[in-house]
Write a structure and sequence with these properties.
The chain contains two helices and no strands. By secondary structure, it is mainly α.
Amino acid sequence: MTITSAHIPAIVALIAGILILVMPRLLNFIVAIYLIAVGLIGLGALRFLHL
């Protein structure tokens, strides 16, 4: 897989989500789940769900 400029926001979202999960609070937890989901969708990991 070649990383293009289209993948950068997804990678940043994944990294931000993981970093937020290190220091969990309710809002941080919700935001972290959202960022991880956006990152996975952006990278095409959920392609099998036909979203």
